[in-house]
Every structure is written in C-alpha cells, then in structure tokens.
Design a protein that fits this description.
Number of domains: 1
Radius of gyration: 14 Å
CATH class: Mainly Alpha
CATH superfamily: Tetratricopeptide repeat domain
Shape: globular
CATH topology: Serine Threonine Protein Phosphatase 5, Tetratricopeptide repeat
Largest sheet: none
Structural class: mainly alpha
Number of strands: 0
C-alpha cells in the first residue's frame, strides 16, 4: 500500500509537470512512479502520452508502453485512444479507426469515477 501511495504521488507530480509542458521532468516523475510500482497503469499510459508529444521518433516506445498497459487491463480506453492517435499520425487510418472504436465502446461502459 505504501508503494502504491508513493507511485501515485510521483504520478501526480508528473501530471503537474506535463500541464506546464515540462515533458522531460514529467517523464522522470512517471519513471520514478513505475520504478516503485511497475504495473501502475495511469503512469504507463501517461508516459506514453508524453513520449507521443516528443515526436514521431518516440512512437514505437509509446506504443510499447500502451501495449503493456493493455496486457494489464484490456479495458483501458485511454490506452486504446492513444494507440488510435499513434496509428492516425502514422497514416494507418483503418487501424486507427478500430482503436478509436474500441476506445469509444470501452469509455461508454467505464465507471464515471476511476477506482484508482
């Protein structure tokens, strides 16, 4: 439980850095969160989102993070949405549409408030 709380605090710090467009600092915070709790899905997805903002050269790494998040939780609509964004930016429109459809359907069935 202590590890999860520590991971959440680093995840929150990463979100604050990200809100200020401090991408490298955000990545450091998310990395620390993942070093404490490697399967903490919010930090995995957030790391991928920051990597996506760093440019197309980071897409394959971001995709790996998102696929890992989906192995842990196949119903994570944010991971599906971000996979759709990567596919769209890479020009794989059919694949992007499938990912967006999955994200949409999962979002509709998701609880209003996250349990984490």
């Amino acid at each position: 439980m202590v590890a999860l709380k520590k991971s959440i605090s680093h995840d929150f710090a990463g979100m604050l850095f990200e809100a200020q467009s401090l991408h490298k600092e955000a990545l450091v915070s998310f990395s620390i969160a993942l070093s404490v709790e490697p399967d903490y899905i919010p930090s995995i997805v957030a790391t991928a989102e920051v990597l996506m903002k760093l440019g197309t050269q980071s897409f394959s790494i971001a995709r790996s993070f998102l696929m890992h998040a989906l192995r842990l939780d196949p119903t994570n609509h944010e991971a599906w949405l971000n996979l759709g964004l990567i596919s769209k930016m890479e020009g794989s429109l059919k694949q992007a549409a499938e990912f967006f459809q999955a994200a949409h359907e999962l979002k509709l069935s998701a609880p209003i408030q996250s349990f984490l």
